[in-house]
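User: Please fill in residues for this 355-position structure.
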């Protein structure tokens, strides 16, 4: 029996190695993550969160609130749910795609970064208009997140021009820069690429004065800054690097604080595989169930506009909140979404950041 088991394992391994790989990975040597001490010291602050629509929704990746305080979340099935103050919920719209980033404009329209359908506008009646589906002649492959300047310019991310939302783990293994930061002008209806060569362009957030915009590079564990105004206009630099987790959503409270969601702590198996393209080719052939998985953990970071960490919030076992992919400050409420959870989290904003 033992010999047959060994033979079977060898045979299956040989077959897997012989199969073509869906990726052509680049070698990458991740720098060590910051140690979880000092301001990074784990706590259980997120376990005090209130949960909205628990068990009734799946995957509210991003959240937003309208001027009446109602909460909106884009779900895995392509719908956008609206949750009222009494906890009741209703269907607001169905994009037929996968709504990710959500943000209200000054006219009360919900602007949506839909991973499949592109950049959308949904009016208060729930009517959907497609704003753009391409940039520089290249289709939007994975429209992810957005923010809106005070004069109405919509800045959004195209996470990967090669890999769709269904294959985002392959984008991680390939470790090549297919992401873009893009701007859409509602007046001219022109779509412009601001920055290319990003490693999974994810969350987007503007500074309080619109002088710069941040975009998360999830697979490089960093946040990149692109300057919109001033002497550095058109230039970019690293805002914060070597994060201890995968940066997903980011938002600004417009008072000098950015809220950053780390979807999960860094994965040692993935980090250790990155320097070896051949190994990553084999990992990409495995069924999704056998590929590296996210560790259950709730992780939120407060940053100032100089890129310094000023506070961290944790749920170290992911018991209440896990795989947090967005954080939005609405007044003195902190709303949190998740790519896969069945709820929207809410907690009181920590005292130093209250408006």
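Assistant: Residues filled in for all 355 positions:
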């Amino acid at each position: 029996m033992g010999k047959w088991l060994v033979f079977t394992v060898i045979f299956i391994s040989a077959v897997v190695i012989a199969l073509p790989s869906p990726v052509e990975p680049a070698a990458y040597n991740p720098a060590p993550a910051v140690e979880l001490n000092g301001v990074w010291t784990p706590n259980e602050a997120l376990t005090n969160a209130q949960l909205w629509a628990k068990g009734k929704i799946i995957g509210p990746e991003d959240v937003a609130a309208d001027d009446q305080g109602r909460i909106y979340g884009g779900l895995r099935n392509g719908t956008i749910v609206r949750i009222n103050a009494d906890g009741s919920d209703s269907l607001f719209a169905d994009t037929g795609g996968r709504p990710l980033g959500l943000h209200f404009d000054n006219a009360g329209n919900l602007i949506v970064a839909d991973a499949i359908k592109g950049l959308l506008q949904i009016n208060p009646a729930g009517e959907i208009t497609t704003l753009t589906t391409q940039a520089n002649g290249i289709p939007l492959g994975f429209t992810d997140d957005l923010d809106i300047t005070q004069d109405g310019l919509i800045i959004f991310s195209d996470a990967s021009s090669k890999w769709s939302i269904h294959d985002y783990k392959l984008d991680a293994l390939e470790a090549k820069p297919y992401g873009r930061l893009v701007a859409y002008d509602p007046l001219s209806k022109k779509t412009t690429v601001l920055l290319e060569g990003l490693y999974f362009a994810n969350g987007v957030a503007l500074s309080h004065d619109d002088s710069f915009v941040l975009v998360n590079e999830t697979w490089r564990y960093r946040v990149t800054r692109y300057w919109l105004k001033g002497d550095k206009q058109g230039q970019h630099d690293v805002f914060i690097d070597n994060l201890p987790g995968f940066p997903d959503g980011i938002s600004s409270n417009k008072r000098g604080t950015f809220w950053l969601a780390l979807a999960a702590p860094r994965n040692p198996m993935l980090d250790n595989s990155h320097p070896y393209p051949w190994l990553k080719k084999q990992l990409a052939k495995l069924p999704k169930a056998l590929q590296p998985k996210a560790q259950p953990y709730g992780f939120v970071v407060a940053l100032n506009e100089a890129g310094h960490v000023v506070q961290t919030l944790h749920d170290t076992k992911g018991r209440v909140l896990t795989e947090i992919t967005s954080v939005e400050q609405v007044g003195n409420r902190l709303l949190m979404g998740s790519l896969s959870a069945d709820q929207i989290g809410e907690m009181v904003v920590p005292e130093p950041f209250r408006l």
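For context: The longest helix spans residues 2-18.
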